[in-house]
Amino acid sequence: MDSVQYILLLFISTVLINNFVLIRFLGICPFLGVSRYVDTAFSMGLATTFVMTLTAFATYFINSYILVALDLPFLRYVSFIIVIASLVQFVEMFIKKASPVLYKALGIYLPLITTNCAIMGMALLIPLNEYNFIESIVFGFGAGVGFTLAIVLIAGLREELEFSDVPEALQGVPITLILAGIMAMAFMGFAGLVTI
Amino acid sequence: MQSTFLYSVLSMGGLGALLALGLGVASKKFHVERDPKIDEVNEALPGANCGACGYAGCDAFAEAVANGDAPVTGCPVGGESVAERLAEIMGSEAEESEEQVAQVLCKGGTKETAKAAEYEGIETCTAASVAGISEKRCSYGCLGLGDCAHVCPFDAITMNTNGLPEVDPDKCTACNKCVEKCPHDLFVLAPVSGENHIRCSSHDGGKFVRGICEVGCIACTQCVRVCPVDAIEMQDNLAVLDYEKCINCGLCAEKCPTNTIDFYGEKIEHIEITDDCVGCTRCAPECPVDAISGELKEKHIIDQEKCIKCGICYDVCKVDGAIKKEY
Question: Could you give the 3-state DSSP secondary structure of residue B152?
């Protein structure tokens, strides 16, 4: 298969078919916690995408040049956690300096990316799927875009939900979980769109 | 096996050291100056994060104080001691801020106020108020279900056996939570030194109030007329006290025919001008009933027939011991 086409298909597959939130059920915490308003959801998505891409980049090198080279695959979890935590710290410092407005807007969610399991999951899936460097970057970026897509979609729905007549027992988190379930089923429809 | 161990330690140690170095450099490079005053102010605050100041928490308030957006006296919980400390940090003088305490403006408990119905709904004032139901015939009075006692974060409010809230002035921090919570707006924040309180909030007509409540304000306006400093005003069939003007003389409480007004201070029994009077004439024009007479540089005299014993002359007198009052 043509490599450019393959990369494109990998991207689409990561965003839609194997969406991190709705199909793999990773990163549910920010998906429910930060999806009140489309604006903050989008900022959160962008920050996560940024961190995911960087993490994919960094973990690929650590995995292939340290862990695989020295035959230490059992250290993946430990090393990836260190890398993710440091990256998030770095991004936080950078944003604080470069754009105080964005820093204020992201608030507590920025450090919370550290504990977003979607990022850890993404980092662990790269060696599992034996992606090469380019594929890893695309996979990381695609995972972030998929996360952003899912969180913005549900934020849009939740904004609409504010004005609808929800039965008392289902108000708040329950109706959001039902929505997420329906969205996940809808995303299952993408299965078979492309095959790699 | 030996090499695995060695490699693990070396690779993880190296990775950690490298990242630590990177973060260290980044923290220097991307260092953002934060006003050290913010942390100092934060230290001095009570740290309860109650939000009574109107900010999201102690940290947000500290930032506002350091930026000069919030007054140093803005923390009602900390009171004067915190205000002074903050003023010290900010290098400004603490304005005199008198501590406040919540007062209940209703005296009509189950004993005093006529009953209208039995309420068996959700046991909160908010619910009863939304349903428009009150057990009492007075639609302004205390609902008696204790929302204020529940909302008080400092356990300063308890419901007494008469179905009315009682505020413990020692525990009350004037955080305003009860004022916001009460659906009938029965709480006000009054200065701690305030001794007079008009404990009624009913805007009903006098005749109606008299019929349903033993201690309601019947709008007879006697307190308004007796007040020497015009601190009481009639607002839509209700006497309302201006705590800033009130001099705590207790005359209104004495006059009030329904005993709506509480007076906790000491009533002046006798007041007279002694031989120490230098005749400065300062007191005479201040007397609301013109009971003081006397010439310049001569001893003044209080006409005991006219005197209402409000104590204003005592307060304005600049000569120590020239006016003597007995409680």
Answer: coil
